[in-house]
Structures
1.
Amino acid sequence: MRRKIVAGNWKMNNTLEEGIELAGQINDLVENTEINDVDVVIGTPFIHLTEVNKVVGEKIGVAAQNCADEKSGAYTGEISASMIKSTGSKYVILGHSERRTYYGETNEILVKKVNLTLENGLAPIFCIGEVLEEREAEKHFEVVKSQIAEGLFHLSAEEFGKVVLAYEPVWAIGTGVTASSDQAQEMHAFIRKTLVEQYGEEVANNTSILYGGSCKPSNAKELFENADVDGGLIGGASLKAEDFMGIITAF
Ligand SMILES: O=C[C@H](O)COP(=O)(O)O
């Protein structure tokens, strides 16, 4: 089901206390503001999941930022999809460029994580996006298409219907350089066309495709006005309740 979604990704920020406080502030704002049919998601570090789920009401979904690529067992330091599910969380952010780059997450690993996420009734927020060199070499469409195909096209149409996509041009993440509204729309339309080819119009038109990369209250409205931009995956600006709220209300 295509929904407008604004998802925060706290990355590796906030102690447990700080996270509970921030989640409470966001929840208060969400509860007391008229929100135009937008699903709000908070992506926290693992240690916050249980407590943040207790703090937020029904209008906010909680996301983990990763999960293990195995079900359970002797994998020291890992957190499984079923463990995430048991905290009351609803989403798992997968394939973020920081995980692909710093932790060697390959499409093969991501396929396992996507499958485990779905098997446990969680929705993957699956990240895709090119680096600057790939855009400059005009390979960005090819790169994004192959990330989607290799990470997700093993899914049936029904399974794919539970996936949220997040297009995050790597050159725009945390840099203050946002993709222009035209660049975002061009890529999102391309992604939707790619989904039409694989799954048909209905699935493609029902898929939420979020934009991520230096999205702020000041530029969110322009980005979200595009026909194929269904919301945002927000890093830095999700760490301040007012800024995050400014993005949510940009719709
Ligand atoms: O997951 C979020 C993205 O990496 C965007 O981060 P940013 O808003 O700080 O650029």
2.
Amino acid sequence: MAIIEVHELGKGYDGHTVLDRISFSVAEGEVFGILGPNGAGKTTAVECVEGLRRPDSGTVRVLGLDPFRQGPELREHIGVQLQHTQLPETIKAWEALDLYASFYDSPRDWRALLEQWDLADKRNTRFAKLSGGQKQRLFIALALVGNPKVTFLDELTAGLDPQARRATWELVKRIRAEGVTVVLVSHFMDEAEELCDRVAVLDRGRIVAVDSPAGLIDGVDTEYRMTFRLMDANGPDPGDLLGNLDEVASVSRTGDLVVVSGRGDFATAVTACLARERVLVSDLRIDKRTLDDAFIALTGRSLQA
Ligand SMILES: Nc1ncnc2c1ncn2[C@@H]1O[C@H](COP(=O)(O)OP(=O)(O)OP(=O)(O)O)[C@@H](O)[C@H]1O
């Protein structure tokens, strides 16, 4: 069952279109990613769905409610972690939870949330004195205190170091395991690949694909990419040698660096050909396609650029 339905949602600022009639739906219980580069319109889209911004056109329904017109009713059932959530520096962890709980008719017991998110010994610690990871867990607890059916997490891991990001991913998996639908806004491919059941790829205000991460990767016409350096830059041209192999889709060269993409028994075919032609190479690396490759295939540019 769809818990969120977005149909032809349009939004612009000062005559400039930011969302160009986007449509997607989110099923109950899934982790749904909205993925795109900075400025693609992700926050605008999600804030229209949360009822925080008024769409110019189209319809949005969350749990059957219109977020803008039925905001107060809807907010009883959603949990939101905004991109730039802040709390007063001196508020204690328990006070923040108690305050947020007071906004809802049937909140969860925040004492249990403190336990669950490993903050029990920090209940009297002021917000400013919490570590980055503890603040992150407190924000998640705050997003869950209203006992939501859907929670929105916007750039949850921006600014965190790799270890803290991975720890946060585990938290998202825990939210999902509790049966809460998660809408995750991110510009990190690896995060979406790890966490999302389905992803909407947003680029310049348009949705260019909605699929599972594996489905998006399958859509890329090549499976592997090999890079290597030529030890003799004046030797035979690798494009001529490799370009005719059935397994090879493309060959590009910049100086002594060669990038070859292909599918099937690609690595064997390429290395056998190089050996046969006595082409010596170094720094050889083979990568399997990732969501980033799918994004490049869909939009013509990298998300990480
Ligand atoms: N309130 C506003 N008034 C005017 N322009 C805005 C407003 N909010 C966003 N924009 C513009 O709309 C575009 C999309 O912004 P939005 O924050 O939705 O993108 P985003 O994909 O979430 O980007 P980021 O990852 O950088 O947050 C940007 O060009 C931004 O400058």
